[in-house]
Amino acid sequence: MAKQYDLVIIGAGPGGYTAAIQAADFGMKVAVIEEKDLGGVCVNRGCIPTKALLYASHIFSLMQSSDEFGIFTDQISFDYGKMQRYKEKAVKTYRDEICQMFQDKKIDFIRGKGILRRDRTVEVHNSEGKEYYQGTYVLLATGAKAYIPNIPGTDLPGVVTSDQILHGKEWNYNRVMIVGGGVIGVEMATIFHNLCSQVTVIERNDHLLGPMDRQVALELEEDLKKQGINIYCSVSQVSIEREESLTCRFLTRDGQEISQKIGVVLIATGRKPDVSGLFGEDVHMEMKKGRLVVDGGFQTSEKGVYAIGDLIANIQLAHVAAAQGTFVVENLLKKEHSIKLEVVPNGMFVSLPIVPSCIYTTPEIATVGITEETARAYGMKVRVGHYSMNENGKSIITRTDGGFIRLVFEAYSNTIVGAQMICPRATDMIGEMATAIANGLTAVQLSLAMRAHPTYSEGIKAAIDDAMRD
Q1: Distance of alpha carbon 315 from its chain centroid, rounded?
Q2: Looking at the structure, do residues 52 and 86 belong to the same domain, yes or no?
Q3: Minimal CA–CA distance to 11: which of 306, 440, 396?
Q4: In this structure, are 237 and 293 located in the same domain?
Q5: Which class for 105: exposed (0-12), middle (13-18), buried (19 or more C-beta within 10 A)?
Q6: Domain boundary, last residue among 220, 254, 269
Q7: Which alpha helices (DSSP H) does 300-367 contain, by range?
Q8: What digits encode the pLDDT tens for the residues 211-225?
Q9: 262 near 246, Cβ under 8 Å?
Q10: How far is residue 361's CA from residue 372's CA, in Å, rounded to a whole number?
């Protein structure tokens, strides 16, 4: 006999646990099924551990140049095992907070492999055998897993994904080749470079960060090269071999064949929806290009079954999944929506102009809304304000050269429609721009608030002034 719930959720990542908490707040009886740990990939093997290692490695990097600030040390070293323990403590603290909320809100957390069966029933396999749970509604939120491209040699020892690196205890990353110049690739490159590794990043596209604003991507590429990271874009014919050591071979854009001996090869070519073992033989889901097909309310082809996050979205972001989870619960209970989501042609269900994207490199990158290039492609007339952070007082104090803030305004109303930042604290400052876009603020309205001096955020006012100068 299946245990009965108002909502059964498979997957305990940001989409799943956010939906569970929201549903419990509305009085629903909720069960969350997760094969691994509460928090999903983001908390345990993604966002939180990566950012913890980025922070720790950044401190070590700063110490190497501390003499610039009149601070001298005889010897600087790091303990990678202790860095990992610090990271694990951060992960546990975050996960424990979610656990406590589950307990407080009486959400049942069930550990095991969840398999969707007909009639909104979930079969759970765990150490105790099989159990069955039936929901008035079922929400699928199993996220994504690492995508391994068809490159010869990816199965060799020493070829790893970010999951393996984030759980490594021993330091053996003196020479690292990163295959893939997306978000995971450039953040991992930053960690290893901060810890004095020789780092090479290869990318098949003509610039890093794929769909990111081209000028932002090129600025980051130049910054990474100045730091000593080797970057190759437009590469082809990649292969990995092991003789006495790992060797990676590839062709550059000008046809030059490069061969490098490497200690570790990190495959960072993105992630794909994780539907492995998710459906029983009595369930037949409509899918397209590896993603579940959903309607405007996130309902799948199976009535009463919903899907969110990386299972359906082209943009794989924790905050997108969380917003979608909230939307589904509010929709089921006919509550007023706290966030606006819209259907767009590529099947991505979220109002794109207000989704910030953040990359925690040095310097940080953050964008929201549309770029000048996109606006002009759609025939929109825009005003663009650009401010070089070399002129910013806080940047001068902290010796952080380079970077910029660019703001895009609709030309007639002067309403802000986009922002791109590459500078320290960009990932924090982008929230102001997302709020401004969501509320349709104009350049004048954005200028009403005084920004403290000296701060990085003064660059926002300078970019507004530059846009309105004509």
Answers
A1: 9
A2: yes
A3: 306
A4: no
A5: middle
A6: 269
A7: 318-332
A8: 788 889 999 999 999
A9: yes
A10: 23
Give the C-alpha separation, 285 to 465, whole Å. Answer: 52
What are the distances in angstroms from CA 241 to CA 204, 237, 439? 19, 13, 53
Distance (Å, rounded) from C-alpha 426 to C-alpha 133?
44
Q: How far is CA 350 from CA 76, 151, 272, in A?
A: 46, 33, 19
E strand or H helix that includes residue 409: strand 404-410
**Same domain, yes or no, for 164 and 260?**
yes
How many other C-beta atoms lie within 10 A of the C-beta of residue 164? 14
Q: Do residue 139 and residue 279 come from a single domain? A: yes
- Residues in a beta bridge with 418: 369, 408
Rounded to whole angstroms, what are the CA distances from 220 to 192, 217, 371? 16, 5, 16
Phi and psi angles of residue 404, each rounded to the nearest 5 degrees, phi first? -160, 165
Which of 242, 269, 296 is the last residue in one of the domains? 269
Q: Does residue 264 contact residue 246 with C-beta atoms inside 8 Å? A: yes
Q: Is 8 helix (H, G, I), strand (E, B) or coil?
A: strand
Q: H or E element: which one contains 113?
A: strand 113-117
Tens of pLDDT, residues 44-90 = 999 999 999 999 999 999 999 888 889 988 889 999 999 999 999 99
Structural domain count, the chain: 3
Q: Which domain holds residue 371?
A: 363-467
Instruction: Dump pLDDT digits (tens) for 265-278.
Output: 999 999 999 999 99
Residue 180 DSSP code:
-
Residue 238 near residue 298, CB atoms below 8 Å: no
Distance separating alpha carbons of residues 468 and 444, to the nearest angstrom: 9
Residue 8 CA to residue 120 CA, distance in Å, equals 9
Length of the chain: 470
- CATH number of 459's domain: 3.30.390.30
CA–chain centroid gap for 185, Å, is: 11
Tokens of 127: 């150490």
Q: Which helix (H) or strand (E) holds 144?
A: strand 144-146
Contacts of 323 (CB under 8 A, 6+ apart): 339, 341, 350
Query: For the chain, what percentages of helix, strand and coil (3-state, to nearest 5) are there?
Result: 35, 25, 40
The average confidence (pLDDT) of the chain is: 92
Determine the Cα angle at 251 with ends 249 and 257, to 5°.
Answer: 70
Residue 319 CA to residue 404 CA, distance in Å, equals 25
Residue that the structure tokens 């939120």 belong to: 141
